[in-house]
């Protein structure tokens, strides 16, 4: 089982939409998928088929030590298991943050309770970084996808948080979302971001802007089904293929790594 944290350093990046789409696309590729909503905005369930914001979820397990978080699991029509964050008041949200601060391994311990096959994947859609949720997701992940639109303010925020993300995430990749090549400002922002990233961290994938995406969400459908030949659909499929290949490679690397640690030839 591998864990992928989907994070962002700015609001309005499309992170939750991307997390839900990737969960479905990986499930369609035969992967056992669990999607965790680790964001107090509590929106992932709405993208994965709930007709309202889930009243209970991970937050209730943080608020009550006797509450098991996995009792709030749902399964959508695509076979994706997902756990909402749950509705919280301002006071409850502060209590959740306090518990996470007191228990830096809370999420890691929760993930350890999952009984997924070796080829399974957990996608964690987390609150904007930095946050208690974001920090724990990054620390628990095998792969961190940082989503950013190619806008100057968002890219500047990402650059400012880059060192912290690099320290926390063993494997960090940048996903540029809502790309509109017709805008000169976006090209300039991408050039600035590429220069800041340097040779050690490439822009893994780019997903183009598509005005039909909100309409698909409103209908409860997926853009890659409604408009399979659109550029954004092609980008999402390409990103899912890239992750599927990464997961396969990570799986085959495990026996070799174990053998090296044991002093044997892989």
UniProtKB/TrEMBL annotation:
InterPro entries attached to this UniProt entry: Cellulose_synthase_operon_BcsQ (IPR017746), P-loop_NTPase (IPR027417), ParA/MinD_ATPase (IPR050625)
GO terms (BP aspect): negative regulation of cell division
The keyword ATP-binding is annotated on this UniProt entry: yes
Domain of life: Bacteria
Keywords assigned by UniProt, alphabetized: ATP-binding, Nucleotide-binding
A GO molecular function held by the record: ATP binding
SUPFAM superfamilies the record matches: P-loop containing nucleoside triphosphate hydrolases
Ribosomal protein keyword on record: no
One GO term describing the cellular component: cytoplasmic side of plasma membrane
Classification via PANTHER family: SEPTUM SITE-DETERMINING PROTEIN MIND HOMOLOG, CHLOROPLASTIC, SEPTUM SITE-DETERMINING PROTEIN MIND HOMOLOG, CHLOROPLASTIC-RELATED
Protein name, entry field: Cellulose synthase operon protein YhjQ
Gene that produces this protein: yhjQ
């Amino acid at each position: 089982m591998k864990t992928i944290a989907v994070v962002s350093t700015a609001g309005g990046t499309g992170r939750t939409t991307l997390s839900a789409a990737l969960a479905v696309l990986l499930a369609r590729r035969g992967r056992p998928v669990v999607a965790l909503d680790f964001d107090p905005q509590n929106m992932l369930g709405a993208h994965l088929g709930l007709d309202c914001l889930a009243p209970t979820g991970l937050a209730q397990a943080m608020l009550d030590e006797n509450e098991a978080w996995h009792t709030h699991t749902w399964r959508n029509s695509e076979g994706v298991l997902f756990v909402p964050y749950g509705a919280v008041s301002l006071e409850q949200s502060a209590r959740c943050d306090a518990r996470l601060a007191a228990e830096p391994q809370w999420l890691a311990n929760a993930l350890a309770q999952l009984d997924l096959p070796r080829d399974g994947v957990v996608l964690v859609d987390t609150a904007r970084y930095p946050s208690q949720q974001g920090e724990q997701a990054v620390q628990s992940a095998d792969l961190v996808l940082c989503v950013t639109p190619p806008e100057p303010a968002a890219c500047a925020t990402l650059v400012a948080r880059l060192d912290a993300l690099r320290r926390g995430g063993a494997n960090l990749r940048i996903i540029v979302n809502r790309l509109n090549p017709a805008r000169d400002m976006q090209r300039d922002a991408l050039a600035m971001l590429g220069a800041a990233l340097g040779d050690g961290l490439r822009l893994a994938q780019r997903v183009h802007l598509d005005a039909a995406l909100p309409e698909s969400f409103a209908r409860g459908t997926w853009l890659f089904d409604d408009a399979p030949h659109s550029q954004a659909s092609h980008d999402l499929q390409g990103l899912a293929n890239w992750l599927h290949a990464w997961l396969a490679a990570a799986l085959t690397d495990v026996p070799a790594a174990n053998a090296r640690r044991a002093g044997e030839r892989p």
